[in-house]
Amino acid sequence: MPGARGDLKLAQYYFEKTLGYANHLGLYSEELGLSGEHLGNFPQAFTHLGLISAAYYLDRKLDDEA
């Protein structure tokens, strides 16, 4: 599939960027404000579940590429 490698690199970039929005304990809120402040429910389980799921599938794809 053309561009698939670029999409994987972009996914990895956004995943790693997302990790930078955690607080000092590695927790995430329900939403982020425009300047990165945590908004809504805190900590938010569904946000963490989505992050874990993204990490799992990204890792699988990166292993397939190796």
UniProtKB/TrEMBL annotation:
InterPro entries to which the protein is assigned, alphabetical: 6-hairpin_glycosidase_sf, GH15-like
GH15-like domain residues: 10-56
Biological process according to GO: carbohydrate metabolic process
The entry's keywords: Hydrolase
SUPFAM superfamilies named in the record: Six-hairpin glycosidases (SSF48208)
Secretion signal, residue range per the UniProt entry: none
Name assigned to this protein: Glycoside hydrolase 15-related protein
Residue runs in coiled coils: none
GO molecular function annotations of the record: hydrolase activity
Organism: Pedosphaera parvula (strain Ellin514)
Any Pfam family matching the protein: Glyco_hydro_15
